[in-house]
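Entry 14. Structure prediction run on the chain below.
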Amino acid sequence: MNKKIAALLAGALCLTTLTACGGSNGDAQSADGGAADADKTITVGASPTPHAEILNAAKDVLAEQGWTLEVVEFTDYVQPNTALVDGDLDANYFQHVPYLNNFNQKNGADLVSAIEMHYEPFGIYAGKTATLEALQDGAVVAVPNDGSNETRALLLLQDAGLIKLKEGIDPTSDATKLDIVENPKNLDIKEIAAEQLPRSLEDVDIAVINGNYALQADLNAKEDSLITENPDYAKVYVNTVACRSGDENSDKMQALKGALQSEAVQKFVEETYRGAVVTTF
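Output returned:
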């Protein structure tokens, strides 16, 4: 384990929510700190829910094969990719493929999708207004403010009949509220950092919330939202384990894939998330 990751893990007890945190590094080291043990450790950055939880469910499967899985938790959407680019992680698991592609394009990075795992249906959740039908003229709507996720939110608002986007906007686009061409209720679209959306509910009429942040706020898209994405549409946003280009066929990635796509992990996902996380393997 390199010094940067060790520092992240050691600081987890005292850093604020925008800092990476993780488990003990004791599991990753042998008594003599041998390089062989380090080489059998897979270090993966992840959002706490559901990604880190799913990874932790795979630990026993990996352990049976002689691997140690070290999960480093991040609470934002920026640090996991920069840490992977910098070589501080073997992989990360927090993002869908369009977000990964968007990150590569904007940052000149060369990260690749190694293990496609699941999708999390986006949902529209009630804030001050209880139903979509009750939305008044000028109602405030919160959406995530990052590239592909804002596109996804706007497309869901369009599917709900609340707005119309200009021609050519699809899941691979990088759309903003400036791409709205029809807004019959004059909705006030507020672009907010994705991790802040659940806390914004009490201040807005409705909010479109990413699946992982909804789960962290005890919201289930299948059970609690006013409307969710069509399953076929949501699959475009499959969440993936990403790694640096050239590492996707490594022993570490192959071991991780086998464990994450095992029957034990699939059962865990189905029983834990009740339709808010849907596996694609």
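The chain has a mean pLDDT of 88.
Filed with the rest of this week's runs.
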